[in-house]
Amino acid sequence: MVAVDLGGTRMKCGLVAADGAVLHRETRPTPRTAGGRAVLDTLLETVVELSQKATADGHRVRAIGVVVPGIIDAETGTVVAENLAWSGTPVRAELIAAVGDDDVPIVLAHDVRAGGYAELRQGALTGTTNSLFLPLGTGIAAAMVVDGRLVSGDGYAGELGHTRFIHGETAELCACGQWGCLETVASAAAIARRYAARAGRVVDGSREVMELLAAGDEIAAQVWQDALTVLIEALVLYTTLLAPTRIAIGGGLVGAGETLLQPLRDGVHARLTFQREPEIVAAVLGEEAGCLGAALYAWDRVTSEEQS
Ligand SMILES: [Zn+2]
């Protein structure tokens, strides 16, 4: 399998064997600032080069899995992804044309759902039928496992990051156009941005805010508490609606470990009355989840085509 994940700041790519073993991995810059066409050209070039590498290494490419952020139209294979400057871009058609081999199926899927699928198949959500993968990174989106299936809602489901939890004057404008979204307070990017706005100096991402938090910095403590408060609200809402038995938190913020997880557990526990209480754990596949999910989806396609 050739697998490429366009979520996150760099493109994560790999060659993955049928048993899930990663034979080759690399990352490449995503030329976001150069526009949507440049991003697409880089993706096509990457897929073609990785296919050539697989062949040169003596492997046969059985399928290609590409995962992207944003909204994918499953029928047309077009993608709307603001941070890749794609607005209805025909990604699947371009991939088919670039690969030029009808025997190699191409699977296009959502990055967070692919990550959730990988966590479900071989990570923190193994063995669950109702669970949630929630990566807290540049943005926040959810992969929702409901009654044993990952819910995609025709490509639109799982946008928990864009539900409103902040009302009134303190609500900040979100990239999606709404005000006070979860993502404006609790994503890794928001934590860095909100600290910088209050302290009047730029910080090196949420990681530096966590270091400041550990050192007793008051602004860091406030920004962190704000994030925890809305995350607890979001997890209680999700738990009330969909009754997960396990929630796996991923993305950059989970690097904080128990500093993040224990207050979430305590906060959710304190709020629940009748609802089934979920376990709250760290996701285990890290940055590789999306890429691995792309490969798993691609392999599923090959297997189902062989059976039909
Ligand atoms: Zn939003």
From TrEMBL:
Lineage top rank: taxon: Bacteria
Transmembrane segments: none
SUPFAM superfamilies: Actin-like ATPase domain
InterPro entries, A to Z: ATPase_NBD (IPR043129), ROK (IPR000600)
Pfam families for the chain: ROK
Family: Belongs to the ROK (NagC/XylR) family.
Protein name: ROK family protein
